[in-house]
């Protein structure tokens, strides 16, 4: 099953770095956040990636064109007329990576539609290229298969940090209880499974997937939710990037399920 990564937006809320590169290529430690996401999928057996690029798409292509140089030691023989080099492999990522230029101003729905030829008539994974999490793909896929629906999205609950009060319209308290996993707002965090029929619900390039095709699918009862109870964090701002870097260099980085 292929993994589609949305990586074409402008990233204006983290413009301190995104004016130089696409937001998914902003580094957390030694890797772009896009690679963190891919390593998480690959560890769980999903190694065939289709990247929906757009803004500064050449940066993504150049990165993977030189991936072995970036991730291994290398000796350059400058005395050689042939510019010889030797890569000292510390380890290899046996991935297939397809980078597709889906347009500068294309919306998320249009980006997904433009990679249809690389997916064919098969189910696929789909997520955003600017957030990490320790989502269990086996559980997600099993949840999707049991639902029989066209889309399963992972939802995440920021929850409450205190006890919860239930009260009547007149203000009298009915009950006080400790918080549960279902208190608070559930949000779409990506990490979706989609059936190929989803492509038929996308109208045009300028339609966001979330308010277009996904909304129509919801109206038809074709969207299932998988509640993720582990770790998830997006990187919309510089402050969130710094939070992720602090976790990355800690002894227990929650989304790092692989070994370097």
Model regions low in confidence, pLDDT < 50 over at least 5 residues: none
Radius of gyration: 21 Å
The secondary-structure element order is EHEEHEHHEEEHHEEHEEEEEHEEH
Could you say which overall geometry the principal axes of the C-alpha atoms support?
Answer: globular
Q: What is the helix content?
A: 25-40%
CATH class: Alpha Beta
* Largest sheet entry: 8 strands, mixed
CATH superfamily, by name, is Spore Coat Polysaccharide Biosynthesis Protein SpsA, Chain A
Mean pLDDT metric = 89
CATH topology: Spore Coat Polysaccharide Biosynthesis Protein SpsA, Chain A
Distance between the termini: 24 Å
Into how many domains do the coordinates divide? 1
Strand content: 25-35%
Number of beta-strand segments: 16
Write a concise keyword list for the protein shown above:
two-stranded antiparallel ribbon, globular, Spore Coat Polysaccharide Biosynthesis Protein SpsA, Chain A, eight-stranded mixed beta sheet, alpha/beta, 260 residues, 9 helices, single chain
Condensed summary:
This protein is 27% helix and 27% strand. It has nine helices and 16 strands. The chain has helices spanning 15-18, 33-43, 57-65, 67-71, 108-114, 116-119, 137-147, 213-219, 238-248; strands at residues 2-7, 27-28, 31-32, 48-53, 73-77, 84-88, 96-101, 124-128, 131-133, 151-157, 164-167, 173-177, 186-188, 192-194, 223-228, 232-234.
């Amino acid at each position: 099953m292929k993994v589609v990564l949305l990586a074409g937006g402008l990233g204006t809320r983290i413009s301190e770095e995104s004016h130089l590169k696409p937001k998914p290529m902003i580094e957390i430690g030694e890797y772009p956040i896009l690679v963190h996401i891919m390593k998480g999928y690959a560890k769980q057996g999903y190694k065939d990636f289709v990247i929906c690029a757009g803004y500064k798409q050449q940066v993504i292509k150049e990165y993977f064109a030189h991936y072995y140089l970036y991730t291994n030691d290398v000796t350059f023989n400058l005395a050689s007329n042939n510019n010889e080099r030797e890569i000292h492999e510390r380890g290899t990522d046996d991935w297939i990576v397809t980078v597709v230029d889906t347009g500068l101003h294309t919306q998320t729905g249009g980006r997904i539609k433009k990679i249809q030829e690389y997916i064919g008539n098969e189910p696929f994974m789909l997520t955003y290229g600017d957030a990490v999490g320790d989502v269990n793909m086996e559980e997600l896929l099993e949840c999707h298969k049991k639902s029989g629906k066209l889309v399963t999205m992972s939802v995440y609950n920021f929850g409450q940090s205190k006890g919860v009060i239930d009260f009547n319209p007149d203000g009298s308290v009915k009950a006080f209880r400790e918080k549960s996993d279902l208190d608070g707002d559930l949000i779409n965090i990506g990490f979706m499974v989609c059936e190929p029929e989803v492509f038929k619900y996308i109208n045009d390039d300028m339609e966001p997937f979330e308010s277009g095709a996904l909304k129509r699918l919801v109206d038809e009862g074709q969207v299932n939710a998988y509640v993720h109870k582990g770790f998830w964090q997006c990187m919309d701002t510089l402050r969130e990037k710094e939070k992720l870097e602090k976790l990355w260099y800690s002894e227990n980085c929650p989304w790092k399920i692989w070994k370097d």
